[in-house]
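Assemble and predict.
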Amino acid sequence: MALTHSPGLTGWFDAAPREEQDMALRAFEAMREHLDEREIDVLVIVGNDHLLNWPLSNTPEYTVGVDETHVGPADWYDEWLALEKFTVKGHAPLARHIVNQAARHGLAMAHKRDMQFDDSVSVPHAHLNAQAGRPIIPITLNCTVPPIPELRRAYDVGLILGQVIADHGGNERVAVIGTGGLSHEPGGPRYFFIDEEFDLWFLEMLKKGDHEALMRECTLERMEEAGSGGTAELLAWALALAFTKGPAEVLGYAPSHAWRSGTGFVIWPEVI
Amino acid sequence: MGNVERVDKTLPLNDMIYHVRKDAELRRRWLEDLENLCREFGCSEREYQTLKAVDIRGLMDIGVHQYLIPHILRLFYGVTGMTNNHPALTAYRDAFADEAQPALKEPNG
């Protein structure tokens, strides 16, 4: 599954029109039901690091949180997100397996035991997992500090992680959640801009389920046009997409000016 | 490519903001002793003056990462309730009036 993680979804949720709030609440509920129905044990939450865990001098492409327990949101983000501190179990054996086995597949992933959480993990956790308390494995990616990878790179990383997680050998049922997007330009000149046309096109591509067409057509240049430094958060969606097959079900979308982000929610009924 | 490509990854001010956000003592000094704080992080006079003036366009011009600029504004204006009426956002509207125009038309924008 994949969803927007904009801070407004917790920090100033009520600022959006009622219909946008209702759309988001219905989508969150459907996503929670989806996790329950599939008896998911562990959530791998993939979203970008907003220059919180890593400074601009060192921005690993991917970082895995390998701690036994995770605490968030980070100071400075908690008040902004209007969230109380949460504590949630990690899954250290699987997280460490991911780091080590990914390396054996040629994929370098940094790791942290004291990972800090901004909106990319805190917002989806608040809406999807605060009550259920499933263990999480947070994976952050870089999509804001150049060079920014293409969508296909994230999809390919997802394919590797699919093999790695399948090889773990545990009995846990794992769900991968991509967070971020859709179109927005946080802190840029077009801070208030949302490219609804791009968002609807992207979601339509997901509904068609043609992964190769999406990788071919959704270039970094196109994402940057739709909102520089923000729309490329959809790399996390592409990573999650690699675990799926067939069409996505779009649970809802709104070009939310109040939350300053194209705001969307999808699940994939079929996974690999 | 997009605006985010304008970042100067080596700019001392970017490094400074990264640390200030995460440290309560540095946040206090941000408000009370900004000049010396900038000096300790190796910021240039131009970086300090642009920051002191809260010049959003100027900060982008010298290579501050665009994502960190709202954080700079939060450090000056406060963190909570970041609706489009928050001072940090109204500062953006003023700095980029043409770009903000479509959203300004939204009733809840």
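The CA atoms of residues 38 and 48 of chain B lie 6 Å apart.
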